[in-house]
Design a protein that fits this description.
The protein is of the alpha/beta class. The protein has helices spanning about 5-10, 10-35, 35-45, 65-70, 105-120, 140-150, 165-175, 180-195, 215-225, 340-345, 385-405; strands at about 85-90, 100, 130, 155, 175-180, 205-210, 230-235, 240-245, 255, 260-265, 280-285, 295-305, 305, 320, 325, 330, 335, 350-365, 365-375, 410, 430. It has 2 domains: about 5-325, ANL, N-terminal domain (Rossmann fold); about 330-434, ANL, C-terminal domain (GMP Synthetase, Chain A, domain 3, 2-Layer Sandwich), CATH 3.30.300.30. The chain has a 9-stranded mixed beta sheet, with helices on both faces. A 4-stranded antiparallel beta sheet has the order 10-11-12-15.
Length: about 425
Amino acid sequence: MIYDKAYECLNREDLEQVQVERLQVTLNRIYQNVAFYRQSFDQAGVSIEKIKSIKDIRELPFTTKDDLRLSYPYDMFAVPLKDIVRIHSTSGTTGKPIVVGYTQSDIRIWSALIARVLTAIGINEQDFVQIAFNYNITAAGLGFHYGAEKIGASVIPSSLDNIYRQIQIMKDYKTTAIISTPGYALHISKMLEELGIHPESLYLKTGLFGAEAWSDNLRLEIEKGLRIKAYDNYGLTELIGPGISFECECRNGLHVNEDHFIVEVINPLTQKPVGFGEEGELIFTTITKQGFPLIRYRTGDISSLIEGRCECGRTLVRTNRVSGRTDDMIIINGINVFPSQIEECLLQTKEIEPHYQIIVERIDGCDTIDIQVEVNSSIESFDIISVIFSLEQKLQRNLENALGIKPKITFLERNSIKRSDGNKLRNIIDRRRK
């Protein structure tokens, strides 16, 4: 299903014309009202009148997370504060939070974008949608809430309630769609197993997950545990929240809402654009945001553009699913490793639980990586030491083949590793930075 065929299926020439017109309006707004951009453009010698095509956007300077933190709280707002009707922010766990303002128009657009996301995966007015994102200063919970209401679905705002309560709500309220982080969905599926509740006794059929990079193997694990079809979506509080891009029922990449965002992929080191299929850093420019527009925002997320059209009929460009972040990349003795690569390998091993912790240290000048995992109940043997040794060899071999490094494997008792509580889960402890 397609929510807004007029724009989601627009031909490329007309779509780019829409983008250019909206970009020009945005550039004029920020040049007049945001001192940061006025100074940034002037210092770069950029004249906004000369930005007449999508390719011309490369003449504009980037915006970074540090730029936004320095603007705390309201210096990046492009409208008077009296026109701001909603304020969200990032968590601020690594410094000052980034404060984002929304006008009435921004809220209407945001709701419509989420309606696109939900419609694309078959959610409609007959669904009971349980939103297990926190309803707080961050943007995810309320964003999905208003979008689900817009398509007429019944919304269950369970937020980050107690996990037992989440399951009780699913059973009693007949939840058909769950929206959360993938880690939290996995936690729910494992808790169902521990409680002896078969997922087929529930009404669940669809899951929409985001806010974390997650692998195809984790998708399969969630689908198996909850008996659902799981979909990905992409959003950032800085840009609008969820609603930037989404999977359709074909699950062949994420469609970018290009009538609201211009997407680029660059080499994060050279800052030059890369071609279709080549991984790099996602860069987004907002072209309809009024309260908090951003130009060429460096997300830090790693992905690539997909060439060609999707079978669903949408003409919107697609990106591959986010594989990691530039700041999550671990460099082990000169070899680049992303947590998603490790996760992909671990989830192919049926004898361990789908939870892990990565410990990175530097000992005697050499980097070491210790991957901590939990053995599951499928291992039943009188010769447990021999079984564990064999499993360790298997994991090391698989990881070395995939990553080019041979990690240490540490086996822990079940439930030793922290489970997702619905917030973003950090699986890496890098003691080299301490």
